[in-house]
Write a structure and sequence with these properties.
InterPro entries: His_Pase_superF_clade-1, His_PPase_superfam. By secondary structure, the protein is of the alpha/beta class. Helix content is 38%, strand content 15%. The radius of gyration is 15 Å and the shape is globular.
Length: 170
């Protein structure tokens, strides 16, 4: 089984790229609640995105060793400008995956190729083991679509909590 954990609530700092945001200490209780919920396996291999909010989420969720996999990072968003209607920009990214939906954003197809490749490699290397991957909502949305042969689910993306978990039977 594959468990895709969306990181906990970030500490949003204007002027700082989202990839550098830390986990908000005010949201630690939410991460601990997920840890205690029984929604994650007790025995699994753990991997995380290199982003600080994802690493901190993984550290709060498990005592196990956690590997950092650079390719699990979120869609590259090299802009620190605030987007008031993020769902509309993500909708545009999913509708036109080969184009940048916002200045400074990588096309979602690039994100999908990078994340799917990394996850398929992890699945092949650790066949038969449960994997818990800690990362990001948009990356997980395109990954789930690829693994299940379905369209990316914008409504599911919108309703993902911080943190949250998606189970995928692979």
């Amino acid at each position: 089984m594959l468990y895709l954990v969306r990181h906990g609530r970030p500490l949003v700092e204007e002027g700082l790229l989202p990839a550098a945001w830390e986990l908000d200490p005010a949201g630690f209780d939410d991460v601990w609640a997920l840890r205690e919920s029984g929604r994650l396996p007790t025995r699994a291999l753990w991997f995380t995105s290199p982003e600080p909010k994802a690493i901190a989420t993984a550290q709060l969720l498990t005592e196990a060793d956690v590997g950092v996999v650079d390719a699990l990072r979120e869609q590259v968003r090299d802009t620190a400008d605030w987007i008031s209607d993020l769902p509309a920009v993500v909708r545009r990214a999913l509708a036109e995956p080969g184009l940048s939906a916002h200045p400074g954003w990588e096309p979602i197809e690039v994100t999908r190729t990078r994340v799917v490749g990394a996850v398929r490699t992890l699945l092949a290397e650790h066949r038969g083991s449960d994997l818990v991957l800690v990362g990001h909502g948009t990356a997980w949305t395109v990954l789930v679509a690829d693994l299940t042969g379905t369209a990316p689910d914008l409504d599911r993306w919108r309703t993902l909590a911080m943190p949250d978990v998606i189970e995928v039977d692979v």
